[in-house]
Design a protein that fits this description.
By secondary structure, the chain is of the alpha+beta class. It is about 40% helix and about 15% strand. The protein is elongated and about 85 Å long.
């Protein structure tokens, strides 16, 4: 029987193929980065030193506009995929269901036995990481046209009965899961405090593909939290008069975050003065920026989606009389600009203001579908606040912004509050350690 053992060293990972304890072959798939004119190209070489053309095209052309971090992770996943195919000595077109099952175990870091081959790892990945890697691989295989393989097969894990609108017909929908996905570990010791850009991408795609009357609403809320750093209370407290066109006249938007007497505890704008009586709307501090209100500058695409959602939610053409009545009675908000009618923006299925509890139920479903740890046991890491943390981490890790720049965009009065948001995952800390080591070795001219 052939035995394949992962050999880890500071120069990279190789897989040694042994027969009767004699090394007969070494599998060494190399991933390199090349900087040309300010652009970083990720290249993967096969065991013969040849560039894998499809991988090059996928990483640098098809997904060339993605973040470098995202392409690096995809490159690592594809490197594992091509190592696996070298180990079993097959091409993509030859892979069968059993090969894909073993591939899933290979990515997870499990020991694989069978077909006269035994694979032994020194890496073990969490269920959540395994599922993220499989999702990345799924995108690549779909691009290649291999979307009928076992990797894409799903199974029903539950059935939901729903109904929408006035006299709506009952609709039965199945909740599905990929058969090769690993079950989320509820008792996981380490729960990330933030949503990574890769996880955000998975969430966005899930929302786009799921059938729901709240698709646009959910997408806008998540974008406001992840791409603009809003807290959930700030999102839920938005009213129609808080959404304004940007003075630049280019289609961008401006949000004004402020507190009202009509707000509930769920609709709080942190950092803005609290209001006990409507007479306080006339106080000079209430109309002073960074005391009475804060500004959020919205890019055109998010502003456009927000406006579309508002128009859809305000339309009475597809609403029952009960929903219209609920909206007029319960979604009404104080106007601080002297307008006749003002209403809260984000609504639930009954057309009353969306609450944190209602949004939490939606977000849990999204996280489960995306295989993101829920932190059920201790609930230390607020699910919605992970997006704001992700916003901060993206600026720090991906955009390399200075802490003072991040402080301004996070709307923190103290730099110490901003520092709290730097919470890298254990995997990220390990990767940083590896990068430091690699760069030191490069400096002393040690070649791979």
């Amino acid at each position: 029987m052939k035995r394949i053992v992962q050999d880890k060293s500071i120069f990279g990972d190789t897989y040694k193929v042994t027969l009767n304890n004699v090394v007969i072959r070494e599998i060494d798939i190399v991933k390199q980065e090349i900087d040309i004119a300010g652009d970083t190209y990720i290249i993967i070489f096969d065991c013969d030193g040849q560039v894998i053309g499809k991988v090059y095209e996928y990483l640098n052309v098809k997904n060339g506009s993605d973040t470098l971090s995202s392409r690096r992770q995809m490159g690592f996943v594809l490197k594992l995929f091509y190592i696996y195919m070298e180990i079993i000595d097959k091409k993509i077109v030859e892979l069968d269901d059993n090969d894909y099952k073993n591939l899933s175990q290979f990515i997870h870091g499990e020991r694989i036995s069978g077909n006269h081959i035994e694979i032994e790892h020194r890496d073990y990945r969490s269920n959540e990481t395994h599922n993220i890697y499989m999702s990345a691989l799924r995108q690549y295989l779909s691009w290649l046209g291999f979307d009928k393989t076992l990797v894409f097969k799903t199974r029903v894990i539950g059935t939901a009965v729903t109904g929408h609108g006035h006299l709506a017909h009952t609709r039965v929908s199945d909740s599905k899961k990929y058969v090769l996905s690993k079950k989320s570990n509820k008792n996981s010791r380490f729960v990330p405090k933030y949503i990574s850009v890769e996880e955000y991408g998975i969430i966005v795609k899930y929302i786009e593909n799921v059938r729901s009357q709240f698709k646009r609403r959910n997408s806008v809320i998540i974008d406001l939290m992840y791409m603009n750093g809003l807290r959930l209370g700030e999102v839920l407290g938005l009213t129609l008069e808080d959404v304004q066109l940007h003075p630049n006249g280019m289609g961008d938007g401006l949000l004004l975050l402020r507190n009202r007497t009509s707000d509930t505890e769920d609709q709080s704008a942190k950092g803005c003065i609290r209001i006990r009586d409507t007479s306080e709307y006339e106080h000079p501090n209430y109309t002073k920026e960074d005391i009475g209100y804060q500004k959020i500058h919205l890019a055109g695409p998010i502003m456009s989606e927000l406006k579309q959602y508002i128009n859809e939610s305000k339309s009475i053409l597809d609403k029952s009389e009960k929903k219209i009545d609920n909206y007029l009675k319960y979604a009404k908000a104080d106007s601080v600009e002297g307008k006749r009618h003002n209403y809260y923006v984000f609504l639930n299925k009954n057309h009353t203001p969306l609450t944190s509890v209602g949004w939490g139920k939606t977000l849990k479903k999204v996280f489960k579908a995306a295989h993101i740890e829920l932190d059920v046991k201790h609930k230390k890491n607020n699910l919605s606040h992970r997006f704001r943390h992700g916003y901060a981490m993206f600026m720090i890790e991906e955009m390399k912004m200075e802490i003072h720049q991040v402080q301004v965009l996070m709307r923190h009065k103290s730099i110490e509050s901003t520092r709290i948001y730097y919470n890298p995952k254990e995997e990220t800390i390990l990767n940083h350690s590896k990068e430091i080591q690699e760069n030191i070795l490069k400096k002393i001219n040690v070649e791979n």
